[in-house]
Amino acid sequence: MANFEAYQEYQRIDDFEEDSPPGEEDLLVHVPEGLSGYDKTKTLDSVFLNSNIHIYQFHQKNGFACMMLSEFFELFQFLFVVTFTTFLFNCVEYDILFANRAVNHTGPGQNPLDRNKVSLPDAILPSQQCTERIQENSWIIFLLIMATIFWVYRMIKVFCNILSYWEIRQFYIKALKISMDELCNFTWQEVQDRLISLQREQQMCIHKKELTELDIYHRILRFKNYMVAMVNKSLLPVQLQLPLLGNLVFLTQGLKYNFELILFWGPGSLFQNKWNLHPKYKRAGNRLELAQQLSRVILLLGVANLLLCPFILVWQVLYAFFSYTEVIRREPGSLGARRWSMFGRLYLRHFNELDHELHGRLGRGYKPISKYMNSFTSPLLTVLAKNVAFFSGSVLAVLIALTVYDEDVLTVQHILTAITVLGVVITITRSFIPDEHMVWCPEQLLQCVLAHIHYMPDHWRGNANKSETRDEVAQLFQYKAVGEKGQTVNRDCSLAAA
Amino acid sequence: MANFEAYQEYQRIDDFEEDSPPGEEDLLVHVPEGLSGYDKTKTLDSVFLNSNIHIYQFHQKNGFACMMLSEFFELFQFLFVVTFTTFLFNCVEYDILFANRAVNHTGPGQNPLDRNKVSLPDAILPSQQCTERIQENSWIIFLLIMATIFWVYRMIKVFCNILSYWEIRQFYIKALKISMDELCNFTWQEVQDRLISLQREQQMCIHKKELTELDIYHRILRFKNYMVAMVNKSLLPVQLQLPLLGNLVFLTQGLKYNFELILFWGPGSLFQNKWNLHPKYKRAGNRLELAQQLSRVILLLGVANLLLCPFILVWQVLYAFFSYTEVIRREPGSLGARRWSMFGRLYLRHFNELDHELHGRLGRGYKPISKYMNSFTSPLLTVLAKNVAFFSGSVLAVLIALTVYDEDVLTVQHILTAITVLGVVITITRSFIPDEHMVWCPEQLLQCVLAHIHYMPDHWRGNANKSETRDEVAQLFQYKAVGEKGQTVNRDCSLAAA
Amino acid sequence: MANFEAYQEYQRIDDFEEDSPPGEEDLLVHVPEGLSGYDKTKTLDSVFLNSNIHIYQFHQKNGFACMMLSEFFELFQFLFVVTFTTFLFNCVEYDILFANRAVNHTGPGQNPLDRNKVSLPDAILPSQQCTERIQENSWIIFLLIMATIFWVYRMIKVFCNILSYWEIRQFYIKALKISMDELCNFTWQEVQDRLISLQREQQMCIHKKELTELDIYHRILRFKNYMVAMVNKSLLPVQLQLPLLGNLVFLTQGLKYNFELILFWGPGSLFQNKWNLHPKYKRAGNRLELAQQLSRVILLLGVANLLLCPFILVWQVLYAFFSYTEVIRREPGSLGARRWSMFGRLYLRHFNELDHELHGRLGRGYKPISKYMNSFTSPLLTVLAKNVAFFSGSVLAVLIALTVYDEDVLTVQHILTAITVLGVVITITRSFIPDEHMVWCPEQLLQCVLAHIHYMPDHWRGNANKSETRDEVAQLFQYKAVGEKGQTVNRDCSLAAA
């Protein structure tokens, strides 16, 4: 029953927003003689068919140099993580680093009074010994081969991307007359105006004489609008009812990627050419068959996810370790930072709202919603945190006093570790203890949030101080750490079952 | 003369606020049949006689679990401080920690190339040697016995408290229908409404048919209102005229405790049953005799304070060391933080203002008053601070440069201590140097403060930039550190002389 | 042609603001009998002729004690930097500090089990050896002699200053009836009112009966107003057109000092008695000759600057090292802090605006202009910074993990250095990565800035997001670090050529 209703809603959306304007299938690009010295037909064609969206992204990502650099660095990061990890696991003599074994530097020409200093190269194995160790371990070799294959695939893709960026760069320079140096001075509004006036002059896109702002928005946001609609109508299985944890929202980058693969641009998806809905989906008779076909695609994708899972897990653990260890050491409070959740970003998005508009709107709401979430403190946790802080602080106080009196204490094993760990523990616990001068005014804060996110169900009104309201807001505004950890979790089963 | 005037004022207050409503002495609690399965008569009786105030505190302290946990942790903190201190003084071999004496690990099975690492257990004496040391020192044994007696007394009291919390918990659940999980969602306003409607339905408290908000406020704030009145009329000896330091306000937690003991609920106090004024205080003829009796009580309390002083001092020094050493290390700037002083909290309190209302009001005023106080900087201190910072910074710069060049410098004795101490010195001095871009607008800030604290004598108006105004504000808004150190000072003499 | 126009403008300024009121040349100070017990004639004379400006500075610098202390500390800082540097270069045995050579403490009475601790005195040479080393090095001796000469000159000047401060102090106490304790309670407005009423009563300054606020402002700001006019009319060569860097503003403390020396109070300057324009500059016939004479003065000053350059450079490098190393270590982010530039302070100054008024106005504009400047981020730099932060963070993560596991890793050479350096690198790179929740609203921020600085050329309006606008704002609001480094650069050539 619920499914049927949802289906009817789906139909209505379909009717309301015309899938593709009549005649757009047989586009023809007509380029006047004005733009010489550059293969216009090809460029304009590809630009206008696939990629108003690319023009937009090119502007948002600040032009060719930035995009190219990002892509190269991404490649290099992967290479670095793989080789550095391999190096750490195979080529370091940890016994020497940890001073469990002394280094013997004594040679004939050395003064016996000189101290025996251990330097970093002493702890690194010679490269020959190192390669031997790697060759002995078949697991590592297997992982390295997998990584190489993935890396080569990525490299080819990066190469293709860069070619297409180059075309868009030429389009900006030749057609829109915007040089790369000036790009950062142009707002998207201004770029769009140039695009529209270009169309008026040169009729690049034949099926329509006048290109309006709405046309451009529609092209850029084609799939985004579908996603927003599906999330608002709860058609995607992102809200789970778990026995103990209650109503939970689960939507990670990975899951979103999978959804988009299935629906929009994967093999066997509902759309063709990254633009038009397959004609067969428009006939009511095919429905059952197509549903089975889609279910098969989802199952296959689930299996693929399951197989790739261990590799992705290893990669994400390594990447998180390299990225966040230092952050946690420096400011452990960042563990408690929140950001708009993936779900919130879709749920709160308006139809036809571009990325930078959404980003600006949610950015303006960030401060009040952070304050709102932070103004809730669990009293039980506060009592616990205060006491843990006291006990850790006591031990730390003694260690600090001893160290100030004579810093040789630090050479005793694990004293430094203890100081570091206690310091981190105290910083974390302190973040749970609310400021004694905090003013508690959830109702006003929630009003401020509303002013920017434009969403407030009736049962929030007057209940801003209730924990239920807080939990619902938390679905939109998630812990950063959760958002990132959550990505490693596998969701194949639920996908296959959907 | 002044005394007589004060006395007349006192009489007027007495007349104005009727001490106890007629007939309240012979209360009777009538419980209907509706509340079954729980000994209502007893609970409701105790709840309604002594402790509208307990219902309020139970709500403010977030329910049974939090209160119980707090009490247990308090017991445990005492235990921890005592045992940890005893352990540190008797069971640690500091010579080994400070590397004045080497540890001899050499055994037959050891590789001579292995480094001799000192681990923490090496520096801890075996338990037998440890107990011997303690048994030799009779002072420590005496202190330990005192501590044990105090701890057992505390434990019994905690046990009684928990029983009474349990009763209030039952009252919340059975009578007010508020489960403990939901408690944090209820504001005190809502709890109070339930209390009033409960009275309307079930007539728990017989002498009055309708219970109003004012009745409840009066019950909760009975003693607080008296204190506020006495502070406002300057009846309590909290303002001292010292020869050099000028007008000083001295009101610590300990002094307030003593005042309350004398006036409200100690043995020989003015009130009986923690509620009614003794009838004998109402007859004018007794006045001289009663004054002598009170003076005797105060003298006795002063002597008791004097005797307990060394123990309290030792405890407070230890507690402060364990609590604040780490804070000072981490952010020495917190030494300069201020908070509303005990005196300010009483002086600025309205009659019939509950704790959370006062807290919210002063909390809203915290930011402007902090800014106001911080905008005053002593120019002389600034010059000194800048130069101390420069000289410490110079030495530190050299040490840092040497360390970065070769970190073996750190193994030289006292270098690390020097770096730490210089770092702390610089942070402290920097806090005395005002920001060069600070905007100086004391008049506006004081207006903002006024908006929340609702108090501003005429001679402040237009003189916000004067140092006298600043000093008077400082009486209400004290250094945190002073507030906490001040508690250790003994006030027996002034008490006895009062 | 341009020169002629500039000259005409100069003439108009000259005409507009009467150089000195008629009759002021032959001032006479008349002191009534009322002020007894203090040599009024001399004091009031010097006070009123040269130094309304001194009265103002005395108030702004918070009175005698602060000014004296500042002067003494400045002397002492110089002494300290010179001796400490000499000490560091000649009297420290770095081999022992860096543990390249072991210390031999072994004596007959020593326990062989005792560790060999290196203490700081071990690394310091005995004073005899130290002086020998210094005597061998003739360069150091030369520098020391130069420093001594400069120091003695400074000391004499400080002594003179203090004498004049003392006179002003007496003037404040005796004539204005403001004691030094109360000085900080007086605003300049109030001091000025007293000055005016004093004149009304006692006719200290004869050529004018009534002294108005404007008179006092004119006296204090005589030279400042000229400087402001010259900067606004672009008469001073502070804006350079460099081939690669574009339009650059170069105005340092040193250059400003040179300008003032040439124009106002150096030998051969345009003004006599620090107050009146030389009469010869008023005759048009002398113009060519005077211009040549001025050009000669400038050339001489340029040569003097060139000769003193190496000494000033050495001093500034040393001073910067001692002052900023520790700051950079503690908060490397302060490298990116900005302040109103010297040029901005002159360009944005109103005529007849006192220092504290300008300071307050620019201080109020500090926050919005900082936000405005910080809201610009170079996308390319962001990509680079993110990746540098990732790679440094990865290595740091491994080092932290190793250290937490076993802190003996720290004894390996250069590990601690690596941790420190990587930490600083990461902090610096992080400061280039914009906050992801930042809201971009340059237009509003620039409006806020305008409200305080009262300056906005037409081409900024509506172009607040353009990088050209940002660059122009940056001329007024410079990196602190640049402002301080820039001072070391020599500008003789451009000066001589001017």
From TrEMBL, chains A, B, C:
It is found in: Preautophagosomal structure membrane. The keyword DNA repair does not apply. InterPro entries: Autophagy-rel_prot_9. Keywords: Autophagy, Lipid transport, Membrane, Transmembrane, Transmembrane helix, Transport. It is a multi-pass membrane protein. GO terms for biological process: autophagy of mitochondrion; lipid transport; piecemeal microautophagy of the nucleus; protein localization to phagophore assembly site; reticulophagy. The chain crosses the membrane at residues 138-156, 297-322, 380-402, 414-433. Its main location: membrane. GO terms for cellular component: autophagosome; phagophore assembly site membrane. Phospholipid scramblase involved in autophagy. Cycles between the preautophagosomal structure/phagophore assembly site (PAS) and the cytoplasmic vesicle pool and supplies membrane for the growing autophagosome. Lipid scramblase activity plays a key role in preautophagosomal structure/phagophore assembly by distributing the phospholipids that arrive through ATG2 from the cytoplasmic to the luminal leaflet of the bilayer, thereby driving autophagosomal membrane expansion. Belongs to the ATG9 family. This is Autophagy-related protein 9. It comes from Oncorhynchus mykiss (Rainbow trout).
